[in-house]
Amino acid sequence: MRRLLLCLPLLALPYAQAADHDHDKHDHDHQHEHAHGEQGSLGAHEHGVATLDLVLEDGILQIDLLSPAMNLLGFEHQPNSDADRLKVAELRGALAKPEELFGLPQECNLQKHDLASPLFDAPASKTHGPDGEHQGHNDVLASYRFDCSKAKALASLDFSPLFSRYPGTESIQVQLVGPNGQQGVELSAKNPRVNF
User: For the region Disordered, what residue ranges are annotated (predicted)?
Assistant: First the structure.
């Protein structure tokens, strides 16, 4: 567990750097401008790209997924219709069942999870600027802690279900700390497996 605590600052480094990064360097596939620095931005924001921190130590697996809402919902504005609110509720429900998104052995038991996004607690109020454009970048952060101590050997995780369910997620930048040290990996629908 001591090793885990020593590695956590290294895993947080990309988020700290992203917070200081110039917001004008965001990658966008759409033709409108966002009000930068508004509510909802939890770190670097590039549509199609998510980040994932994995720590496996002493049978405990910690997974932290950070994704632009666009990757998971197809929009990132505050929900302003029943259809939007339904999509947000479905996303929240799906993220609460990580065993359906990550290829985990049955022996890994979810100890706790935390889901964070301004979209999850959005009021049903006007969320558009005077010109009708939505404001801000909204991200989704999902954190999970699993007890995998009864698993024979947790050698890899398969993220195929996540890529299948959310095709807007084109790649996942992974920072992994495990039995073989620290490594960075890029996952995609064609390369969905990370090895410990």
Answer: 19-41
